[in-house]
Every structure is written in C-alpha cells, then in structure tokens.
Amino acid sequence: MLKSKTLLEHKFSLRMKRKYMIFLFIRAIIILSFISFIGFTYYTYGLGNKIILEETIVGKKDYLDIVEYHNLSEKFHAIREEIRNLKQEIHASIVPQHKIKTFQTYIYQNKTGQNLSQEEITPLVISSNVHIFYYPWYKSEIFDGRYGHWNHRMLPNWKVKYERVQPPHKPPDDIGSNFYPKLGPYSSSDPKVLNKHMEQIKYSGAGVLAVSWYPPNLELENEEPVDNIMLKILDSAQNKSLQVTFHIEPFKNRSGENIVKVIKYIIDTYGSHKAFYRTLYNGKLLPLYYLYDSYQISSFEWSKALSHEGQFSLRNSKYDGIFLGLLARQDHMNHLAASNFDGFYTYFAIDGFEYGSTFRNWALISAEAKKLKLIFIPSIGPGYVDTRIRPWNDRNTRKRSNGQYYRAAFLAALEVKPKFLSITSFNEWHEGTQIEPAVPKTFGNYRYEDYLPRSEDFYLRLTQSFVKEFIQQLNNSRQIG
C-alpha cells in the first residue's frame, strides 16, 4: 500500500512537472511572438532597428542578423531580458540542445549553451574566380601630410562649353563622396587600413583584388602615384590568403609598344610575389590583367602586343597573360576581337548606362563572346551615385534599395554562367559603388547616404552570400561537364 501510494505521488509529480514545462513552453511562444511583433513594429515605423530577420541566399536558412542599435525603449529591453531568462529556464528540459527555433529565427548554441556566431554556423568561403576592383589612391593629412582624392574637385560637365569651375572638397568632414567611410578619410598607404581592408575583402569572399594601377611616372594629370605602395598591398593580401591582379588605367603615351614595356615591368617587379595572381588558361598558368578604356586605342596598336604575329608580341613568352579589355558599346566587341584580347569585362555598375553594363544584354553578349572564343566577365555592383563630384550626373544614379539592386545584378550575371565574376567595387567612393562599410554622417546641411536600415557591413555579408552561390554554380557546371 505504501509503495502504491508512493508510486501515485510520483506519477502525480511527473504529471505536474510535465504540465509546468508545457506551461513554460506556451508562455515562451506567446512572449516570443509578442517580441517579434514589437521588433517588426520598430522596424516598420523607424522607431529603432533591433533585429532584422533575413534569409541567407545560399544556406537556405534564416539567421539572426544583429544590426545597429538605435534608441530602443526600456520596455523592449525588459521583454528581451525576460525571454533570455525564460529560455535558460526551459532549455534543459524541453528544447533540443543543438538549437532553439522560434518564428523565422535560428539561434544555434554550442555545448556550453553559448550562442555561436554566424561565421561558425555557416563558414566563410573565398573564391579566386571572384575579383573585386580596389582603389589605392587615397591620402590623409595625418598619414601622408595631405589629402588625396578625398578632396576631389567637382568635375565639369563635358556637354557644357563654359562651366564655372567648382572648388574641391575639404576633408575630413567634406569629402568627394555621397557616402562616408567608417574608417574616415583614410590613407591607402596606412598598414592598419590595408590590414583592415584585407580582412573585409576576405570576409566578402572575393579572392582577388583588381588594383587600380598606373605605371610609375606615367600617371595622367591629377592622378596619384600608386606603384609605390603595390608591395604593401601584395604583402597585406598574402597575410590574408588573398591575391592581387592589376587593373591597368589609361596612362601617358599608351601604345602597343609601351603596353609591352608595362607588362614586362609588372612581371619583373611583382611576378615572383606569392600573392601575384595567376590562373589556368588553355593549359597554362597565366597572370590576368584588366585594361580600362581599351577602346581608346586602335586594334592595330593592341595587336602589336597581343597578336602572336605582333611586332612586340607578348604571346608564348614569360610575359604572356590573359588580357581583358573593356566592353562599353556594342561595337567594342569587334574591336576586342580584332585587337587579340582574350576577353572583356563590363566594369560599370550602372544598368542601362552602356550596352555592356545593361543586365538584359548579358545573355546576348555571352553568346557572342562564345562565338568569338572570348572570356566574358560581367561586373556587378551595389549601386551608383557620383553627384558629389559630378553634380550634373544624377540621371545615372542607381539606388541600392537595401541590396535589391545588387541582387538583381548578381542574378543577371549568374544567368550567363560565367567562369569569373567581377565586383565594382570595394572602395570607389567617388562613384558610390563601394561595399566597404559606411556610416551615417551629417556635415552642415548635407547628410551623407548610408546603408540603414542595414548594418555597416551589410554589403560585405551580401557579397559573401553571392560568392557562395556562385561557387555552387561553378561546382555544378564542373560536375555536368
């Protein structure tokens, strides 16, 4: 009788405990639903952004995206604290140890119960088939003794014959950009800046920097020398397992003969560096070069360097490479083929600006490139705005739309199944194509644009998701092939 009574008490105790756990679970669901509603309300009406739920493009999972904290109410904090306490209370009994799933959010936990970072949940990837345009021309008063490029002058409208010359910008608060960098008006020569940039580029998933470069002493008027910091860039890139290629800008006296001299200088000076980029092409491991505004030189001049029968031919020598010209207009395709380029890129992050940068044309461009046996590298970017240096050019502004414009560009590129993808840009601040972190800032009556309601590093993370999807497509193509 005593045993039966004890057993009944034990069963009763288990039932009460089970009911109590169910009560706690229901209570948690109700409060979590309420906190989700409050969070959504704050996000919608701009009363403060605490949590943004977004879907990871590649991982096909929802994850918790912690972003900027902006003056949330004490009530919101109190509710979240109650959730945390309640979660600890029920975690050991009725919630699986490996994850707590609520609403559209996954909070992953390790064996100690501590929250794991997003990087631990979904490891970062890097692809040497993704190239990002990088600009090393910035100077700061603190590091270099003067500002360079941040004080960019207002460029005159070439369609207006007599236009009043505008004064240059005056950093540090007034800079030649519609956005303001998180690092402030920095120096490209600063090792700390370079290290930070390499960390961010690695985080984005782009494996190769296409560095904007002028040959020494051949820079165009008003351009900053950059060759003197190339070794710094290469060393910093190597430290982060990144590689570097050259985005060769138009330079003085550019010709077939001089381009050969420039390529030889690059190989003899930097070709042995471990971070110098080479890739397999037609059975050979070759460096790859981007040549900006290639259409400014006749195909006859380019052929002197790029044709096998050219007067100064680079082909089948230790200076051979993969040479990519710029496709802007439709007729540039014939120019590129006649010049003996190996392929081309589109650079401009402005859909509809030129034939080459128009997303809907990429399928046709890709088909034509295959006929001519040319490499097609589409260039994608998060948006475009340059009215702080070209105030008359607002018609070419392309709003970022919280990453939707960037996503549309990426999907258009993915559609043509390219082997390489280029990104415009990491830090071309003058034209507002950067994915480098930017922050809100006001100067006088002017308010700089920013990434809100997204976080400072939103475009780095978005790029990382694109790279993952791009790698998956490359892997699928190889399996099919």
UniProtKB/TrEMBL annotation:
Pfam families: Glyco_hydro_99. One of its GO terms (cellular component) is Golgi membrane. The chain crosses the membrane at residues 20-43. InterPro entries: Glyco_Hydrolase_99 (IPR026071). Its main location: Golgi. It comes from the Eukaryota. Belongs to the glycosyl hydrolase 99 family. This is Glycoprotein endo-alpha-1,2-mannosidase-like isoform X3. The gene is 106057620.
